[in-house]
Please model this.
Amino acid sequence: MKPKYCECCGVTIITIMKNLKKQKPEDGKRKWKGHILFKDKKYFYGCNTLAYCEYCSKKLDDEEIRSTFEDRGECWGAPCSEEIVTGYKCNNCGEEVEY
Model:
């Protein structure tokens, strides 16, 4: 199944593309509500946030989002790590996404 909704805002991908194409290009980019469409592209870049299911547009709970911690070395002798989102399983539609 192909995603229908934006994972950062829950708006349909078709609606976002229509609004991006209506915008005047600036430096080869069209922008609309945190989304960017580059010249001659058929897809857009979102807000880089996972908040909604791409298949049913339900707002995801923290329990549905999967993540892991990656080592980032040390800072002043203290170990540092960063939380990385690895996917989610939507409790509403049952869709499971892995990144």
Notes: The mean pLDDT is 94. Helices lie at 13-22.
